[in-house]
Design brief:
The complex is a heterodimer of chains A (160) and B (577). Chain A has 160 residues and is of the alpha+beta class. Helix content of chain A is 30%, strand content 41%. Chain A has four helices and nine strands; from the N terminus they run E-H-E-E-H-E-E-H-E-E-H-E-E. The longest helix of chain A is centred in the middle third of the chain and has 13 residues. With 577 residues, chain B is α/β, with parallel strands linked by helices. In chain B, the strands form four sheets. Chain B has a six-stranded parallel beta sheet, with helices on both faces. Chain B is globular. The mean pLDDT of chain B is 96. Helices cover 36% and strands 16% of the residues of chain B. The chains are: A alpha+beta (160), B alpha/beta (577). Chains A and B meet through helix 1 and helix 2 of A and strand 6 of B. The structure holds flavin-adenine dinucleotide, thiamine diphosphate (TPP) and magnesium ion.
């Protein structure tokens, strides 16, 4: 099962590598990891997406909690939550496919944030699955070539 | 008063009550050495190899219960210490390691003797720090000792660039207390879990207490003894727990696990209620997980939530300091009636009759088991016994009856050959009042021999009991059983003359080749109170450690010495090391 684990930790030298190192040393899988300071600059929020059965997720949470720099760990997927990921997608554009691309952009509620002679850079903020589906749509259809994909990884907060 | 960083470090250590530092100098720590030289509250022990420093500090910590302190230089100094740090980490031993680092402006430049000490040690310390500002020294050292000694203890590394030790500040503040919002180990167990445990305990028909290193680390031996005596339940202990409950007590079934006794492992297998006290369900203990305690409800007391349900799912988890947890349980259990477990005891006593530690003597050879029995007799069971890693370690654990905690000092989790000698030195410095023996093998002893020199310099008389079987015996045993007797690289050729070797270091040496010389030799050695004596004892070359649970088998599938033939193991079993 896919879990989104939210970690509040001291914004200190080496804190990120402690968490990342723990995951690799214990063979826990990381699908994505994002980190940035919170409104309190001494604290960072890290959001990790990982796959695993209940026993593995329990160990991930306990082991992460055990790190001395970690203040709080929660499994967002265990409660109601909001998740968002930002995608920047660069695709090739030609007069022949421009209408199709515009349609896809419309349907997915994306924005075009940069236009060049033969490229579009498209921005989408949404759930991880939504981001997947947009990329898939471009990949499957012959509408256009994907030139570059940059995703931030998922971040999230509990609801309410 | 103005102080430099090095002086602040030394004063901080003094304020923590440090009386011994084990270390080795080098460029990055010269300022600290200069500051150490100017005082005499702390004795610095100059080892001969930084791994020895970490093991000695570890032995000191295990014998005294106080944190061990290590000081090493940057680069090769800290990399040499890593094995010792990892050894302490695996066995949850409190330790503070200070490593010098290249000056801050050079960090990251591949400077002379630069390694990323924080990065290299990250996965084998409880926590580590890099001090970048002289103003942080006092609070970081305070935190380091706090982290190392509380919760589940472990080693903490502090990496200090040389310029920070040279910088000066006026009136440094030495904090009295530590506050860390991110570090608050749960010490007091929830009342709810205690209640649940009581209800399982009082309805158990075939209970067993499985107690581990946490009872030693947590100084909970008195509470454990009370707990066992209130209940009258059988108790088995892990390799790391030995001595917390007296081995000679009628309720003790001895060690469990791969080389545990028949009665301990059979009782685990048949139990309906396993009470784990500060033990971590290690693979040497559980044997095959799918065959582990098939009928038991499991209660687990541990201070580290991540120990719980890591390998084996448990029914009642009691997170907290085992000393306080046991006090609560003892209170709750007094006056409660438990089940009549006399049929269970009858069964256990039948298993005891199997006498699984019996061994046959052979004319003309010294059996290693006999040596340990003799050591036990000569020291009245009151010595500190450190050991290295291998067959000799198992025999020491099986045949020396430890009745008190902190007498048995060995590397269980990492299984580090070379641990025994420096650990014995550290233990002797911590407990000069006790006899200290180091049970070792001719393979292991050669990994840290150089510390014989340190032991002369600091007058730490230790009796080295070398079970010399001319084999890397534990490896040879596995090759005999699982690799059709193909003895790849387990034979030790070109051994030194250990007696002369000891003498060349200024110690005594005694060679023992006949069983009739064993007792007299041991007595002679222990009579030389102020001498380190190397007893080189030629033991049976091909003796094996029994009982043994082969990899992949369950607790009830033990092999007994002289009775069972080793069955070959399948690939899945071999996988399990
Ligand atoms: C060659 C070889 C063979 C071995 N064979 C065996 C064998 O046959 N049998 C055997 O038992 N071992 C054996 N071992 C040792 C084994 O590898 C493990 O080191 C050992 O079993 C672990 O012991 P433990 O479970 O008591 O845990 P420890 O490593 O001692 O861990 C202590 C546990 O207690 C907890 N704890 C610490 N402090 C407290 C506190 N204050 N309150 C509450 N909890 C606390 C910790 O969180 C941890 O979970 C062998 C080792 C070697 C090298
Ligand atoms: C540093 C290290 N290297 C390798 C091993 C693997 N190992 C475990 S026991 C053993 C043999 C030990 O031989 P010896 O010290 O002679 O003891 P014996 O088993 O013969 O009693 C070896 C090589 C280890 N535990 N530690
Ligand atoms: Mg040997």
């Amino acid at each position: 099962m896919r879990h989104i684990i939210s970690v509040l930790l001291e914004n200190e030298f080496g804190a990120l590598s402690r968490v990342a190192g723990l995951f690799s040393a214990r063979g826990f899988n990381i699908e994505s990891l994002t980190v940035a300071p919170t409104n309190d600059p001494t604290l960072s929020r890290m959001t990790i997406v990982s796959m695993g059965d209940d026993a593995i997720i329990e160990q991930i949470i306990k082991q992460t909690n055990k790190l001395v720099d970690v203040v709080k760990v929660s499994d967002l997927t265990a409660e109601k939550h909001i998740e968002r990921e930002l995608l920047l997608l660069k695709v090739s554009v030609e007069p022949s496919n421009q209408a199709d691309i515009d349609r896809i952009i419309d349907e997915h509620g994306c924005k075009i944030v940069d236009v060049s002679e033969n490229t579009y850079t498209i921005e989408l903020a949404g759930q991880g699955a939504h981001v997947d589906s947009l990329i898939e749509e471009f990949e499957k259809s012959d509408v256009s070539n994907i030139l570059e994909v940059a995703r931030t990884g998922v971040t999230g907060v509990s609801q309410g | 008063m103005e102080l430099n960083g090095a002086e602040i470090i030394v004063q901080s250590l003094q304020k923590e009550g440090v009386d011994h530092i084990f270390g080795y100098p080098g460029g990055a720590v010269l300022h600290i050495y200069d500051a150490l030289e100017a005082q005499d509250e702390i004795l610095h022990v100059l080892v001969r190899h930084e791994q020895g420093a970490a093991h000695a500090a570890d032995g000191y910590a295990r014998a005294s219960g106080k944190p061990g302190v290590v000081l090493v230089t940057s680069g090769p100094g800290i990399t040499n210490a890593v094995t010792g740090i990892a050894t302490a980490f695996m066995d949850s031993i409190p330790m503070v390691v200070i490593s010098g680092q290249v000056p801050s402006p050079l960090i990251g430049n591949d400077a002379f003797q630069e390694v990323d000490a924080v990065g290299i040690t990250r996965s084998c310390v409880k926590h580590n720090f890099l001090i970048k500002d002289i103003n942080d020294i006092t609070s970081v050292i305070k935190k380091a000792f706090h982290i190392a000694t509380t919760g589940r203890p472990g080693p903490v590394l502090i990496d200090i660039p040389k310029d920070v030790t040279i910088a000066r500040i006026k009136e440094p503040k030495f904090p009295e207390k530590v506050h860390m919002r991110s570090y608050n180990p749960q010490v007091i167990a929830g009342a709810n879990s205690i209640e649940k445990a009581v209800s399982l305990i009082t309805t158990a028909k075939q209970p067993i207490i499985y107690s581990g290193g946490g009872t030693v680390i947590g100084n909970a031996h008195n509470e454990l003894r009370e707990f066992v005596n209130i209940l009258g339940f059988p108790i088995t202990q892990t390799l790391m727990g030995l001595g917390a409950f007296p081995a000679t007590n009628e309720l003790s079934l001895g060690m469990l696990g791969m080389h545990g006794t028949y009665e301990a492992n059979m009782a685990m297998h048949d139990s309906d209620c396993v009470i784990a006290v500060g033990a971590r369900f290690d693979d040497r203990v559980t044997a095959a997980l799918d065959k582990f305690c098939p009928n038991a409800k499991i209660i687990h007391m541990d201070i580290d939530p991540s120990s719980i349900s890591k390998n084996v799912p448990v029914d009642v988890a009691i997170v907290g300091d085992v000393k306080q947890t046991l006090q609560e349980l003892n209170k709750a259990l007094k006056g409660k009636t438990t089940f009549d477990i006399s049929p269970w005891w009858k069964q256990i006593n039948d298993w005891r009759k199997v006498d699984s530690l019996a061994y046959k003597k052979k004319a003309g050879v010294i059996k290693p088991q006999t040596v340990i029995e003799a050591l036990y007799e000569v020291t009245n069971g009151k010595a500190i016994v450190t050991s290295d890693v291998g067959q000799h370690q198992m025999w020491a654990a099986q045949y020396y009856q430890f009745d008190e905690p902190r007498l048995w000092i060995n590397s269980g989790g990492l299984g580090t050959m070379g641990f025994g000698l420096p650990a014995a030195m550290g233990a002797k410095l911590a407990r000069p009042d006790l006899d200290v023996a180091c049970v070792t093998g001719e393979g292991s002893i050669q990994m840290m021999l150089q510390e014989l020199s340190t032991m002369l310099q600091y007058h730490t008389p230790v009796k080295i009991v070398n079970l010399n079987n001319r084999y890397l015996g534990m490896v040879r045993q596995w090759q005999e059983f699982f690799y059709e007797k193909r003895y790849a690289m387990s034979y030790m050729d070109a051994l030194p003359d250990f007696v002369k070797l000891a003498q060349s270091y200024g110690h005594e040496g005694i060679l023992i080749e006949k069983e009739s010389d064993l007792m007299p030799g041991l007595k002679e050695a222990f009579a030389m109170k102020d001498k380190t004596v190397f007893l080189d004892i030629l033991t049976d070359q091909t003796e094996n450690v029994f009982p043994m649970i082969p990899s992949g088998a369950g607790h009830n599938e033990m092999l007994l010495g002289g009775r069972d033939e080793m069955k070959s193991t399948n690939d899945e079993g071999l996988n399990l090391v």
